[in-house]
Amino acid sequence: MRIPSPEAFAKRIVASVQEYSLLTWHAVAAIFSRPRYTDDTFTQMDSVGFGSLPIVILTGFFTGCVLTLQSATSLKQFGAVNMTGRLVALSMVKELGPVLTGLMVSGRNASGMASELGSMKVSEQIDAMRALGTDPVRKLVTPRVVATVTMMFFLTIVSDACGIAGGALVAVGLLGLQGGVFFHTAFRSLVFGDVVEGLAKPLFSGFIIATIGCFYGLRTTGGTQGVGRSTTQAVVVSSVLIILFDFLVTKLMIGFFGR
Amino acid sequence: MATPAPALARPILEPGMPVVEFSHVNLSFDRGPVLRDISFTVRHGEMRIILGPAGVGKSVIMKLANGLITPDSGEIRIFGRLLSDMSPREMYEMRAHIGMVFQESALFDSLNVEDNVAYRLEEEHCDPTEIHTRVVEALRFVELEQAINKFPSELSGGMRRRVSIARAIISKPDLILYDSPTGGLDPITSTTIIELIVKQRDVSLTTSLLITHRIQDAFTLATHRYNETTNHMELIPNGGIAPSTEFLVLNEGRIVFDGTTQELTNTTDDWLRAFVS
After folding, report:
1. For site-directed labelling of A220, which of A194, B203, B213, B232 has its Cα 20 to 30 A away?
2. Pairwise CA distance, residues B220 & B234, whole Å
3. Residue B86 above 90 pLDDT?
4. Is the pLDDT of residue B2 over 80?
5. pLDDT of the residue at B44
6. Cα–Cα distance between A201 and A149 in angstroms, integer?
7. B92 at interface of A, judged by CB pairs closer than 8 A
8. What is the pLDDT of residue B214?
């Protein structure tokens, strides 16, 4: 394998960032002008939102379960086992719910978008779409961005709820804690800033998943092997960016709300 | 369903008016120059057949003509308008008046034949009844009415190519770009496709650019006409040639011939003689 020169490598990175920025700009600008593909947006909402529901519910539920088990064991050493609900609720709403939902949806949908658009690209269907007078960004990317951002918001709420429910089930069923205490401490611990933080993150994650998935799909070259490569890259890059933006949004929210 | 965009204006074309004009077009890819100083004109009602060895840049000319890629230098005018002056929206509007048949058909594999052929009309928000009527009409033109509910994966290569032609002609375009419409097909299916192209040329009088690797297909196009009485393609009597059909031959990214069928067959250029023989 030929190793590219540092200059060529840097140019390729800059060109990719430029290409990605232009794609996201066009995709967002298309929301505000006609034609709009409302049907495609609802189809994507069904695919991304309803389709991801099982993995989001299961991931959220078992994360809540394991978090309760782990935290209760540690908290017991300090005589603070009744604070389990608080810890689980804060962890799920502020951090684990948004991030794990983002990663799960990324694994399922960024890969799906990259492979679907990648297959269309290598079989000239994207060119055919352009030749037939349709803007592929408007038709394929914008509906996916709108749908993923919208559905990520609701999926995260579902994940948070399932996580807290799973935590409560373990706390009551396995650890013998009182359900009322668990929910009371959970409810008392959450403040407005926590909820805003927890619900701002999925908006970024949704945007990253859709734009990265579509970006890698639309730049696919090299036949079926290229489609596989794009799919892998889309999942890897979107997962890393979700965690990076999770950090940045957390830092920003700490600045705003002081917690 | 898409929220509609503003209505598209059909270009006004007069006899003899240039529909496609390339002027000193140059294009390079990473691997080096692909097209060098390409200049030619295709007039209204004319069919220009592009010949040349594989990898010489013929398909690139098609994509340039449709604005799918942009040249490094030079000017391209379609329907009299400079492509480089068009906004992306104007470009999409222009493409609505151009039909394109891709080398590998490029049908949307998640849509059935009816939806593939109807794609452009759906985008233009035509009445569903009218769409169905026009799809049936277009499929009848390519003799594939019975395949209306099939998916591309259920069709043979020749049938896919015919669906692609139906998709390209359904909106009655003012210009059709055929990118190797007979590539990879057996001789019998190729003849069927060529007959459809001759029919479109002689019945609808549509301006077209056609790429082919098969010299025999090119000469069939030049020496045959469509008989509407028998509904078949026939040889033009007395060794006649189709007056609206001309040739463009490319080699190593340059135009090495631009002229009529007669001029091509009577050429004295050794490379050309070897190529067309």
Report:
1. B213
2. 10
3. yes
4. no
5. 93
6. 10
7. yes
8. 86
| Confidence check: pLDDT of B60 > 90 | yes
Triad B172, B173, B176: Cα angle to 5°:
125
The backbone region for B242, taken as left when phi is positive above 0, alpha when psi lies in -120 to 50, beta otherwise, is beta
The β-bridge relationship of strands B224-227 and B73-78 is unpaired
Class of domain B18-97+173-269: alpha beta
Supply the DSSP symbol for A32.
Answer: G
Range of the domain at A245: 38-257
CA separation for the pair B82, B79 (Å, rounded): 9
End-to-end CA distance of chain A: 49
Number of compact structural domains in chain A: 1
Which residues in chain B are closer than 8 Å to A139, comparing Cβ atoms? Answer: 2
With an 8 Å Cβ cutoff, are B102 and A128 in contact? yes
Would the pLDDT of B7 be above 80? Answer: no
Closest to B93 in 3D by CA, of B120, B131, B130: B120
Q: Is residue A109 part of a domain?
A: yes
Extract the tokens encoding B70. Answer: 């942009």
CA distance B170 to chain A (A): 11
Is A38 an interface residue toward B (CB < 8 Å)? Answer: yes
Grouping H, G, I as helix, E, B as strand and the rest as coil, residue B73 is strand
The pLDDT of residue B6 is above 80: no
